[in-house]
Amino acid sequence: MQGVDKRVINNVPIVKIYTEKFKTVVVSVYFRTPLTGGSVTVRSLLSRMMIKQTEKFTSNAVLLEYLAEHYGAHLTSNVVKKGSDHIVKFSIEFVNDKFIMEDIDMLNDITELLKDVLHTPFNYDDSDEAFFEREKRLMTNRLKSMRDNHSQRAFEMLLETMFETEDYRHLSFGDLDDLERLTLDDVKDAHRSMMTEDEMSILVAGKVEDKVFDYLSRLHSHEETKMYPYKGYPVRGVPEVKYKTAHERIEQAKVNLGFRVQYSEPGDVMALNVFNQLFGGSAASLLFTNIREKMSLAYSIHSQVDIKNGYLFVLAGVDNGNIQVFEDAVKRELKRVTDGDFEASFVEEIKRNMLSSRKESMDKPRGLISLNYNTLLKEQSVTAPVKSWTEQLEAITKEDVIRIAEKIKLDTVFTLKGGIDNDQ
C-alpha cells in the first residue's frame, strides 16, 4: 500500500509518502534557490555545521549520543546542483515507533531535533567562532583531498573550460579560495537568507499517519509562499569546439569530452536519458563495450548527463599515446547512433534496465523521497498535465534516440595528461 498526500501549511509544502514497506521513517527538508558562484561555498559549509551541533546539543558527541539513544537515528546533509538551482538538503532516518516496545514518541523527538538543527544558526555568536574555524578547516581538507584526485580535478577543469562565463561551472560543494575568505558572519547571513528566501519543501516517507503534518508544520513557516520555477539553463549553440590540455605527473591521461544538447521539444529530455544509458551510462553501453572492452582504448570510461540542462559528459582514463585515437573513437560511436547502426531491441533492453533501476530505488525510503521531490518540482514548473515517467520511457523508440543523438554537439575536450606542457 502506498499513497502520496501533499499539503501546504504555513506556506511550506509538506508531502507525505505513505508506505508499509519499511520499518524506518525518513524526513527530508529541502532548500532551493538559484545557483550563484558567491553562495555555493558558504551554503555548503553552513549545511555541514548545522548537523554537527545545535543550541540544545552543544557538541557533536552529545548530538550523536542523542541519535544513538533514539535507536540509531541518522542525520545527514548534502548539497547538489539541480537545473539552474543550488539545493541544500537535510535528512534524518529513524525507526518507526510502531516497531519499538518502549513508550517513546519518535516523531515528536525527531521533529524537535530538526527544528533545533534548522534554527540554531540564527543564534551563532562569538562563542561559536572556534566551532566555525574547525568546520572550515575540515571542509578545506576535504576539498583539498578531492582536488588531489586526478579524475575529479580533470572534471572540474572541464567544467571551468566549457562553462567559462556560466554559473554552471561552480561545483555544488564550493571552492577552496572562497572558503578561505569566509567568516562566521557570512555563514549567519547565508543561513538567514536560506530560511527566509529559499523555497522550502518537507517530505516524509514511511508508515505514518496524517498527524505527521501537525508535527512537521512546526519546523518552519514562511510569511508568504516561496516558489521558484524549476528550469534549466538556456540552450546554447556550439560555434567551435574548445580544446585544452593540462600537464601533471600522472601515468594515465584523463580525457573528458563535454557536449551540449540542442533541446527543441519536450520529448528530448527522456530521449537523452535513454541515449545516455545506451551510449556510455551502463555496462551494456556502446562506449564500454566497444572502446573499453573490444578496442582496449580506455582503462575506465562512462558517460553521464545533466538531464534538465541538456549536458552530456564522457569521462575516461586513457594512455597518453592514445588520446586522439580515443577522441576519434568516441565521435565514431556517436555517429554510429545518428546513423541508426544499432538494433531497436537494444533500446528496449536499455529501457527495461532503466525501469528496473527505478523500481529498485523506490524500494528504499530515500529513493522514494528523491523521486517525489522531482515530481514536486515538475508540478511547480509546468501547467499542462504531463505523462508519468514510466509512460514517457515506454514511448521512446529507436527513432527518438537517433533524433536526440543528432542534436548532441561536442563543445569541449579537456585532457589532463603526463609529460611537459609543450603541445597546447
UniProtKB/TrEMBL annotation:
Family annotation (NCBIfam families): YfmF_fam (NF047422)
Transmembrane residue ranges: none
Domain of life, source organism: Bacteria
Annotated ranges, domain Peptidase M16 C-terminal: 182-353
Protein name per Swiss-Prot or TrEMBL: Putative Zn-dependent peptidase
Source species taxonomy: Bacteria, Bacillati, Bacillota, Bacilli, Bacillales
PANTHER family associated with the record: INACTIVE METALLOPROTEASE YMFF-RELATED, METALLOPROTEASE
GO MF annotations in UniProt: metal ion binding
